[in-house]
Amino acid sequence: MSEQPRPSTIRRIIKIGASWIEQAKVRGHLFSIGVAIVIGVLCGFCAVGFRYLIGGVHLLLWSDWETSLEVLQAQPVWRIVLVPAVGGLIAGPIIYFFAREAKGHGVPEVMAAVALKNGVIRPRVAFVKALASAITIGSGGSAGREGPIIQIGSAIGSTVGQILRVSRRRLRTFVGCGAAAGIAATFNAPIAGALFSVEVILGEFGVSQFSPIVISSVLATVVARYYFGVGPVFEVPQYELVSGLELIPYMFLGILCGAVSVLFIKMLYAAEDFSDKAKVPEYLKPMIGGLLLGLIGVYLPHVYADGYTSINLALLNKLTWPMLLILLLAKVTATSLTLGSGGSGGVFAPSLFLGAMSGGLLGQAVAMVMGDSAGAAGGYALVAMGGVVAGTTHAPITAILIIFEITNNYSIILPLMTVCIISTLLSGRLSHESIYTLKLLRRGIDLYKGRALDPLKAHPVSQCMHTGAAKVPPEMPAYELVQKMVSGETTQFYVVTSENRLLGVVSPENTRRMLMHREGLEAVLMAEDFADEGCPVCLPTESLSQALIKFEHSGLPELPVVDDLGGRKLVGVLRYTELLAKYSTEIIKQDTAEGFAERATSQAIGKVHIAEGFSMMEWSPPSSLWGKTLIESQIPAKYGVRVMLVKKRAEKDKPGMEIAPITPGGDYVISEHDTLLVCGNDDDLDRIAGL
């Protein structure tokens, strides 16, 4: 019998492996590319497995591998009614008891994880989402597999990142890699998958993020093509624009797609509201939704599952206009019942279905009016598929590319772009939130507040304001005030009452007005006569982003901060230069601090140049700062530098350093064992280096 490795040997191997990973992190972009390759391959196989899982469920419940219209129409009525209910009965408890994030279409949960949790997604979500969605879709639930595979891929990317203990920025990127890989493998569309990830999931674009996402998207597509071939998802004729005049009806098609998108969004969340109010156990609601869906399916089995068979019929112009209209309304209702009741599945395929029906309907109407000068109705159905996707997701670039890739037809690019943009504009006008962000907003989550689109939005005025203000009483003679301005460093004064109530602000502009009345300064005028009562004021709880707008309108070097707009008690001032410094710091934090932190975990960092005259370095704080919080230490005011993160010595039996925390708050207490990563002007850094 071979000897088992000792625990000490195993620990040594693990330690060596961890050391290799830490060294690889320092390589930055190459490390991200390597991980992206792993995520792409994993997600590609998961997409293939998920598709086979749906087929297996369908085989078990419908005695056939594919969800084709012919198979469904051959089923007895009792099976058509009961099978979706059985699917809901099984999927509901799985979601409720194991991972409630798997409820619904999944993409909003990924967006929230990226924006609010730095990309942290529980690993179990991938398994629960795959199983619940496969049961829902395989049993006939009106939903698509695209949303689930996005959430599954994102969970895989997040899990890989968490195992490797990467920075928050890299973790978000790896979540984007998983999302892109999932949708690319599903649609055989690597470009659209990558663009969907940066346009919808991450909401930001940068080379450092985009390159790994593209790699994952490509690798997942390669895996999917090995199993399912290289052909497009939908086989359609090569439709093209017959004449320039045809763009006019396509503009109307864009309006129709926008309206259908809004109808879909409203109906879906109306069904969800109705389901939330129903006094039924949460895990049984998908069963009820499945039963109601079954009643529709008796007459219109076209709406079951993703509806790809019916989409192909519309693209080939094989459905009459009454049938197109009926299927349009039926699919909206069916998807609302499935997902609104708590089933698991995506909204991407239903959006394609609604677009095909809407486009086919208008295309037949245009053919009757324009005759041979109009293109085939199937071309309108194809273009409208992108239009409804753009209208529901508010992501026109993704919609344009995905229709192009799944059809391999460049001839319809002009009408496709026209329809997608018009649909997005109209949908955005009628429904400010997309089908994804509305779900989060209804939970009280302002998605863009969590994202760092505006780095000042998350910081209140109280963080930067100074409590000291140049106050003067209202009865002070104007000539004394002028002398104060001329002799002192401060040129802006605040006229306050004895109760500290702000009456107005005297700025350099007010001084100019006083000097114009020099002959009456000593005898008549008081400070309150020249105080600007309409000067903008800030509240301590307002965001610095709001304060920046007030600075732009006022043109003043500083603004008063009052406790409330009623009492107007002066509590401090906010200086424009301090606000700009805070903005610069936050931008630098976003762009460099997290990558810098990864280097800080494994090696000492000297002075590193970032911009002209601006650098970062490690600094051991002097003993005078030990035991003080970052706020109490007033490091920016005393030393001219700002703290980006803290390196803290580990325990004695654990050599090395540990990061705690990545971005310390103002209440963080400095200890003698801390090493601060600070940034600032080169002169200030050189000055404190010798302390």
Briefly say what this structure is.
With 691 residues, the protein is of the alpha+beta class. It has helices at residues 7-26, 29-62, 69-73, 77-98, 107-116, 124-138, 146-164, 168-187, 190-202, 207-228, 247-277, 285-297, 308-315, 321-340, 348-370, 377-393, 396-407, 413-430, 437-441, 447-450, 478-487, 508-515, 544-554, 576-600, 630-633, 635-639, 682-689, and strands spanning 471-472, 493-496, 502-506, 558-562, 570-575, 608-611, 614-619, 641-649, 657-659, 674-681. 58% of the residues lie in helices and 8% in strands.
Task: Explain this structure.
The protein is of the alpha+beta class and 691 residues long. The protein has four domains: 18-228, Clc chloride channel (Orthogonal Bundle); 244-285 and 294-449, Clc chloride channel, CATH 1.10.3080.10; 461-576, CBS-domain (Roll); 601-689, Regulator of K+ conductance, C-terminal domain (Alpha-Beta Plaits), CATH 3.30.70. It has 27 helices and ten strands. The strands form three sheets. The chain has a five-stranded antiparallel sheet with strand order 6-7-10-8-9. A three-stranded mixed sheet has the order 1-2-3. It has a two-stranded antiparallel sheet with strand order 4-5. It is elongated, with a radius of gyration of 31 Å. The chain starts with 6 loop residues before the first helix and ends with a helix.
